[in-house]
Design a protein that fits this description.
By secondary structure, the protein is of the alpha+beta class. It has one domain: Glutaredoxin (3-Layer(aba) Sandwich), CATH 3.40.30.10. It contains 4 helices and 4 strands. Strands 2-1-3-4 form a 4-stranded mixed sheet, with helices on both faces. Helix 1 runs parallel beside helix 3. The N and C termini lie close together (7 Å). Belongs to the glutaredoxin family. GO terms for molecular function: glutathione disulfide oxidoreductase activity. It comes from Geopseudomonas guangdongensis.
Length: 84
């Protein structure tokens, strides 16, 4: 299974929804919390080209945010990416 990294914030409902989807699928992921860590948020923004959370990577692929993750699931493409 590909490594999954989720940049998130504690009080972000989109972060919670994204993590819930991954947990329902039994996916282990590394969570990087950006709260109170401007240098970590800046690193995430540099990598993703976005400043909002969550920002999700599966392997080397930047998935994007919560809506992007759920769109992959609806399209039936998330499992292939996770197992790729």
């Amino acid at each position: 299974m590909s490594e999954v990294i989720v940049y998130s914030s504690d009080y972000c409902p989109y972060c919670m929804r994204a993590k819930q989807l991954l947990e329902r699928k039994g996916v282990r992921f590394t969570e990087i919390n950006v709260d109170g860590q401007p240098q970590v948020r800046a690193e995430m923004a540099r990598k993703a080209g976005r400043t909002s959370v969550p920002q999700i990577w599966i392997g080397a692929t930047h998935v994007g945010g919560c809506d992007d993750l759920h769109a992959l699931e609806r399209a039936g493409k998330l499992d292939a990416l996770l197992n790729g």
